[in-house]
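Q: Joint fold for the lines below.
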Amino acid sequence: MQTSASKQPFSGLFFFLGSLVILFILVLLIFILWKFFKPGKLRALISRTAKPPGTSDALSVHLRTISYFNFHTLEKATNNFHSNNLLGCGGFGPVFLGKLGDGQLIAVKKLSLDKSQQGDREFLAEVRLITSIQHKNLVRLLGCCSDGAQRLLVYEYMKNRSLDQILYGKSNIFLNWRTRYQIILGIARGLQYLHEDSHIRIVHRDIKASNILLDDKFQPRIGDFGLARFFPEDQAYLSTAFAGTLGYTAPEYAIRGELSEKADIYSFGVLVLEIITCRKNTDLSLPSEMQYLPEYAWKLYERSRLIDLVDPKMQEDGILEKDVMQTIYVAFLCLQPHANLRPPMSEIVAMLVRKVALVETPTRPAFLDRKQRKDEKISWDATTDCFPSPLQSDSPSLSRPQK
Ligand SMILES: Nc1ncnc2c1ncn2[C@@H]1O[C@H](COP(=O)(O)OP(=O)(O)OP(=O)(O)O)[C@@H](O)[C@H]1O
Ligand SMILES: [Mg+2]
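A: Joint structure:
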């Protein structure tokens, strides 16, 4: 009796001290977690990696390598996909600005597609593939979400939005020649990576100013690469036409649907001219001979007035005329009517950084002949066949005096 009575207060004390130690360790743990991972970050981490409802084990292979966003997280981040958060709406669906719990800004693209055409497994496999393609001149796909009828892609947000806003949109940002040259070179490098250096060959199909995003330092990043993989072949092709981007489309793709890297190279040529002139490739409000940019550029070249193509604001600011002219000649090369005469992106990059011989005699680009364009029965196909090959071209030479 005496022994058990003396043991009782001792074990009570032991129990009390033990609980105190455990409590202390718990508080310490919570403090460390709170200090090093902010609560928002923790929540975002949990919701990002949450399995999509009904995920089978086979799918979890993909989920180990990509971030899966909970639909609720994206709803919250975009203020319930509020119209104030709408960044724009392209051929593949609307894009919303969002802010995650940890403060990271994202661009959420709600794909407008028929889910029956691609199962979850295929969707996640494509997302995984695109996520694996990374380059400093490509927009990063952070992850995705598939919820009910919705499929969403989550991209990093680019602070300076897309190039179209600056070239002919509402933005009043001015880009000097140095920045424009860096943008042209960056796009060329991004395309070179997609065409030649990444582990899978990707033809972008929709190179245009709105698909060039600019980061906080105005470094360009190509967006929307690989998007066509989520759509059936014919639909992806149509989306480009509906988005009104035919002015960028290479003749062989527009007419015969022949798709190769060379179609992107043609679009790149159109984009370079847009960047230098600061205007849209097609503008029917302009006097008739100026309406189609590649055609107008060539006319000016023939008259030795190519300098008139250059954005007057940029001229005022000061340009390196020789560099600008060289860049326009490179664009002419990209715009060749015959796909095999357009140089690959690696050569274009080399020309832009002057690692290979400069272009001395630009050759006539592909564009519709005005007389023929009025006659609807004559297609671009027929007109491109009439174009002189650069080998027999009577192009004026560089020795012509420039203004
Ligand atoms: N990652 C991003 N960061 C910032 N803004 C973006 C981002 N992605 C898209 N946007 C903005 O959203 C707009 C709409 O993009 P979206 O890709 O849907 O349309 P588009 O580029 O005009 O056409 P397409 O569907 O043919 O690509 C863009 O013009 C751009 O301003
Ligand atoms: Mg786009």
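Q: Anything notable?
A: The mean pLDDT is 81. The pocket of adenosine-5'-triphosphate (ligand 1) is lined by residues 87-92, 95, 107, 139, 155, 157-158, 161-162, 165, 206, 210-211, 213, 223-224, 243 (CB under 6 Å).
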